[in-house]
Amino acid sequence: MKTNKSYTKRLRVTRTGKLMGRKPGQDHFNAKQSGTRNIAGKRQAQFTMGKKARGRFLPGV
């Protein structure tokens, strides 16, 4: 079974098996936000995915 490449480009798997990805809503219109909020948006956030979906899209992980 093939791995879905769009997921592998956007997600990172930690040593413990958690999925990490970018926080949503940080693509544009960031000029009026404070610097603290901009930096917080660049941090990785935990990405939740059910077992069934994870097995379907990321079978090797």
Automatic annotation (TrEMBL):
The keyword Thylakoid does not apply. Belongs to the bacterial ribosomal protein bL35 family. It holds the Pfam family Ribosomal_L35p. One of its GO terms (cellular component) is ribonucleoprotein complex. This is 50S ribosomal protein L35. Keywords: Ribonucleoprotein, Ribosomal protein. One of its GO terms (biological process) is translation. It comes from Candidatus Lloydbacteria bacterium CG22_combo_CG10-13_8_21_14_all_47_15. The keyword Ribonucleoprotein applies. GO terms for molecular function: structural constituent of ribosome. SUPFAM superfamilies: L35p-like.
